[in-house]
Write a structure and sequence with these properties.
Blueprint lengths: L4 H10 L1 H20 L9 H5 L2 E5 L4 E3 L8 E6 L1 E8 L2 E9 L3 E2 L1 H6 L6 E4 L3 E6 L1 H10 L1 H24 L4 H16 L8 E5 L8 H9 L7 E8 L2 E5 L18 E3 L5 E3 L8 H5 L6 E3 L8 H7 L10 H6 L10 E3 L12 H5 L5 E4 L1 H4 L4 H4 L2
Antiparallel strand pairs: 1-8, 2-7, 3-6, 3-8, 4-5, 4-7, 9-11, 9-16, 10-11, 12-13, 14-15
Amino acid sequence: VELARNAALKLISTVPPAGRAITRTSIERQLLQIFGSGLSSADVVEVVEGAEVKDVRAGEVVLKEGDTGDDIYVIRRGSMIVEKTIAGKPVFLSYLPAGSYVGEMALVDGQPRSATVKAAIKSEVIRLPGEAFGRLLAEKPQLLAKAQAEMASRRDVNAFIEGRKDIFSSVVDMYSETARFLVDNGIGEATDVLLIDETLCVGCDNCEKACADSHEGLSRLNREAGKTYAHLHVPTSCRHCEHPHCMADCPPNAIKRGPDGEVFIDDTCIGCGNCQRNCPYGVIRMDSVPPPKPSLLEWLFFGKGPGPGEPSKYWRKKNAVPGEEKPKKAIKCDMCSGIDGGPACVRACPTGAAIRVAPEAFLTVARLGEDG
């Protein structure tokens, strides 16, 4: 039986037994997917029975450095940031997306929590009882080995910071502030985000022009809009949120997620504007497709048409078919899905200033070591 998303959400909210059954099944599947290691449903019964789903406010602390405890927390929805106090100041260590887990270090080695973990945005976590999970680790050597590998990786980051705090404390401070700025600007719920390095950007707007020419003459990004901190600029381009705000109230269910994680709007859009109003980042616009432009060669050799990029309103009005008024529809970045070579904005940048990144790969202090 397949249910539409809206119907499933209604079932969960109005029929408590159905909601509990679905929650239990989803927890079990998440644990098997995240931990793997040859686990079966029977192996995780005790852990699942003791699991508790908790809502966490943005900024709320889930684990506090120095506290005792052995429960493990799986990030079910949203994202977390990890900080460690160095020389009396909180240093941003890493970003954890949904599907990550924390707390295993204290369970395995019996030591106090080694760092503080708090919600980057409104999130949902699954608390797994430490005692039950400890028995599972004892019974499954492969799972224990995986947990120890994760611990080793996190200890390496801690040692990296501790060993270099006197050498580049100002660099770490700048990194921590930049990371917090990015999280405050929506990176915390992104799966793929466009960033522009202001030290490399020459303001040519090739990114906007390429975007428009790849999408029927309508650009999906605004380079100048958005906020900047230090050398990083966050333009108004879709972040492809883990749980898209735009998808919450789309009457025809026109907003979907593609196979590569891209959030896109299909042709069933009715132009109601709900998605634009629901998006907290202002990356959706309502517009109609402009008249077809002459080719680039015609513009280059004969001066026909408006040239590369999005045509002006004057040109659109002048070249519109008389009596034909195209309806406005929702327009947003689709990560150039189906276009060879990947996002046009990145390919068109002559200096490499425009990059698209996954937050978990970009927001980690370990990159300081990679970058020299």
